[in-house]
Specification:
10 copies of one chain form a homodecamer. Chain A is an alpha+beta fold. Helices cover 20% and strands 42% of the residues of chain A.
Chain lengths: 122, 122, 122, 122, 122, 122, 122, 122, 122, 122
Amino acid sequence: MPDTSLLETFPTPTDSPLLIEHVNEEFTSVCPVTGHPDFGTVTVRFEPGASCVELKSLKLYFQSFRNEGIYYEAVTDRIRDDLAGCMEPRWIQVVTNWRGRGGIRSRIVATHGEVPSAWSRG
Amino acid sequence: MPDTSLLETFPTPTDSPLLIEHVNEEFTSVCPVTGHPDFGTVTVRFEPGASCVELKSLKLYFQSFRNEGIYYEAVTDRIRDDLAGCMEPRWIQVVTNWRGRGGIRSRIVATHGEVPSAWSRG
Amino acid sequence: MPDTSLLETFPTPTDSPLLIEHVNEEFTSVCPVTGHPDFGTVTVRFEPGASCVELKSLKLYFQSFRNEGIYYEAVTDRIRDDLAGCMEPRWIQVVTNWRGRGGIRSRIVATHGEVPSAWSRG
Amino acid sequence: MPDTSLLETFPTPTDSPLLIEHVNEEFTSVCPVTGHPDFGTVTVRFEPGASCVELKSLKLYFQSFRNEGIYYEAVTDRIRDDLAGCMEPRWIQVVTNWRGRGGIRSRIVATHGEVPSAWSRG
Amino acid sequence: MPDTSLLETFPTPTDSPLLIEHVNEEFTSVCPVTGHPDFGTVTVRFEPGASCVELKSLKLYFQSFRNEGIYYEAVTDRIRDDLAGCMEPRWIQVVTNWRGRGGIRSRIVATHGEVPSAWSRG
Amino acid sequence: MPDTSLLETFPTPTDSPLLIEHVNEEFTSVCPVTGHPDFGTVTVRFEPGASCVELKSLKLYFQSFRNEGIYYEAVTDRIRDDLAGCMEPRWIQVVTNWRGRGGIRSRIVATHGEVPSAWSRG
Amino acid sequence: MPDTSLLETFPTPTDSPLLIEHVNEEFTSVCPVTGHPDFGTVTVRFEPGASCVELKSLKLYFQSFRNEGIYYEAVTDRIRDDLAGCMEPRWIQVVTNWRGRGGIRSRIVATHGEVPSAWSRG
Amino acid sequence: MPDTSLLETFPTPTDSPLLIEHVNEEFTSVCPVTGHPDFGTVTVRFEPGASCVELKSLKLYFQSFRNEGIYYEAVTDRIRDDLAGCMEPRWIQVVTNWRGRGGIRSRIVATHGEVPSAWSRG
Amino acid sequence: MPDTSLLETFPTPTDSPLLIEHVNEEFTSVCPVTGHPDFGTVTVRFEPGASCVELKSLKLYFQSFRNEGIYYEAVTDRIRDDLAGCMEPRWIQVVTNWRGRGGIRSRIVATHGEVPSAWSRG
Amino acid sequence: MPDTSLLETFPTPTDSPLLIEHVNEEFTSVCPVTGHPDFGTVTVRFEPGASCVELKSLKLYFQSFRNEGIYYEAVTDRIRDDLAGCMEPRWIQVVTNWRGRGGIRSRIVATHGEVPSAWSRG
């Protein structure tokens, strides 16, 4: 089951403006209704505060959803909350893109904090 | 014929900002003038209020247009109204992209409510 | 020669915000200087007022340029004026993309009215 | 060597808003240091004043750089100045994209005048 | 190890607005934890002040990271600081895109100064 | 239901070698088990004998599968047989590509007669 | 664990030549050494004998590898053997494409029986 | 109307094996039934005998189909015959790809002579 | 320097026909003349004999070329010989694709043994 | 003018089968009729005999065509002859792809010697 204790952080290496994006194209969880697996891409974008999430710990945290029965919306909401909780970023955005069921592809966006002005020009 | 009663909703799982997009690449209806089938992609984007449309019910609702004689503009307008009616979202946008007739491809956009600021950065 | 009388309209089916785009990838006219054919794509985007252009009539109108000797700029300008005249839209934008002559590709944009705020998010 | 006298113009055919883009994917000049040829794409975008550059003359003007030893930045700056000089446009932007030397691709943007509001929606 | 002394500059050839982008698709450094090589693309965008970085010196500077053990964030931060230091640009943005480790691709953006208004339309 | 009587032919216009391919990207039928619609692309390739299938009649024939409950394999087999029956081609190949159900895309190939040697070089 | 008993078949609906391909882009198993998940695409191509594998049973069979620790080569070999065993096809080919570990992508091909001459032209 | 007299040739410059391909992406003729324009790409491949078709004359010959009412199959057959007649090539292949009518795209291949062994490896 | 002792093998898990391809898109070595880094993709395809190369050992072996001054042709030839030596495959093919120097991209193919008939259909 | 004396060779480093491909995407010469520049890609593939062409000398040789008035066919034929003359390869193939004049793209293939069996599987 999703395990927040896997997440580790390291101190942000600079006070200058920095924006970070991690994309995991190998995310899978399980549909809580049908029991069939769901496959998607998870994109995490953030402007760090004092700390950044460590990459290997992020990978293990994502893998902890593998056999969890959980809706698209709840996956997105939970990742936002867990990462916002451990990093206390100035801004974070979590986007999930799902390969779809029944011919319909879905995409969910969850945010926390104000979008930094530098981002949209990146 | 298009059947609004097929649409079901579930309570939005969070109060935090959430934006949702569902894309159906397998939409078909019938041209009311020629009787030939039309094929298109329907994209629904919304910021939920208290409820979200359930995915399987959305698929069945889309399938109910299969043998309906209806113009591009009316398809788009009706889906916007039906979904706005059952979900009462803060914002909804329906975009239809049609494969075209007579060498002309078409795209119709219908909206309801104010675009949330977070969307365009999603 | 370009024939505005071919254009027909139908009443806009809703008062709710609606944006419409028609793309014709099979446009051809003739270079007035060399007599060689020009090939391009014509994109028409508009927010309708009380009426919308009918698709088949639009196709026949586009075909009426087939043997007309006319510059890129004049094609774009004329389509904008002809469609603005017959539909009286709140906003219209005509974009022509030309395959090019002498190794140079060209693109012309003609507009009329204010861009609706919903468009750029569509 | 670059020859401004090759550039010819014709009167802008309308007072209505018009934006024009010409893309030449076959631009070549010579590196002034090594003597090796440089290859790039030159994009010219402008809102015309009273006159527009004629396409064939533009092509011959571009070809006149073929054996000129000149830096990326100077090519871009010179085309902007030459075209601004002969057309007196309300706005002009020249973008050069270079295939690269030593594993590094480069892109230079030179502008003159205010970006018209209609452009970014084109 | 990263060697700032490799960087050379030349005087900016014009006072007119100029924006410059260099993209190096062949960047490699070493992960300081595992010792495995990292591969990425480095994009540098800037509005020059009185001087511009010379291309060949930039290439050699990038190559000096080849056997350095250094984190993604620190690579990006250091290139921004080194280039801002030697050029004193009005604005500089450094974007690194990394091929990824453990199924996660990353992208880091570091900036210095105000984004020039002309850039986002380039 | 699939209606072979819709198919019309015209005499092949030459005795010289001719190979013909028609691709319909807008094919839809219904899954006989679930009742959900299936969407696919149908490709017909043939070396004509004395007659060729007429294009508009082929389109109407394809449309006659719209509300038929029929398996992928049977669609492919039936189109091959129906077209072989009405045209008596020297060779015919029918390929169906299906958008998929349950995360699995399928492709079925049915043939009749010997592949002409010229085809594989076409 | 991989469960062959999930596989079901149905009688091949025709004696005419038929070739079938099923592509599953959502395959996942587990690396037996590291315990990390592997992600890949499995393509199954066959010329049926008297029976064909049923699609939904194939999907469930693929899902039964989800938490199995198994090498790339063994996955490919086992699927070939299991499907050859239950269908007794004239020819079968199983191709697995893996997203990769440590910067190396892999592809494994396992076959059984003679390639039908019609396939390579399909 | 199609005008064979426009075609000119020049002597093949070598006795060594030479294979030539010309692709015209701007071909248009008229449907003889509906009067609507058809748009397609014409590819001509040949191994020359003593003479080769001159490029500018080939372009004018293609343009002479612009207002001709003629079927896809007849266009392809006629180009093959006209070019075979004026060049007497060892081998020629004409492939036409049509943008389609009524949702169906078509492709016609006409050949004359034996495919040279070097071609399929080109 | 390239270190063959890094290569490890494991027993081929089946006697049935198996073809294997590993693609490393992150290969780098050094030009022996200029000292500048070279970047390329290495593809290894083989039909195993009694043993297969282990993936992690292959990755470390590729990394051992990182600071070696060596020509394109010699890299390709050496990898073929080293892998053929440690695995004794029935067939092996090594393809290197290089990003290029001085505007020229290169590709080298080295083989050992007979191409298995199943491969070209894979 | 094209200068064969620029070409240098080095001894082939192995007796094992080796196939080599060099692709120059920055080739330019001049049309002998109109004086306008031609742009194309030149691909050279060969199985070496005792010697291989040196890359930098090949680049300078290609650059020597820059201001030569010469037909597509003659460029291709001459490169084949010049390289065959200096290398004496077992097989050589030269393919030129031209961006086109008058809307027609062209591709010329010149060969010398027998295609090695290993090539087509590369």
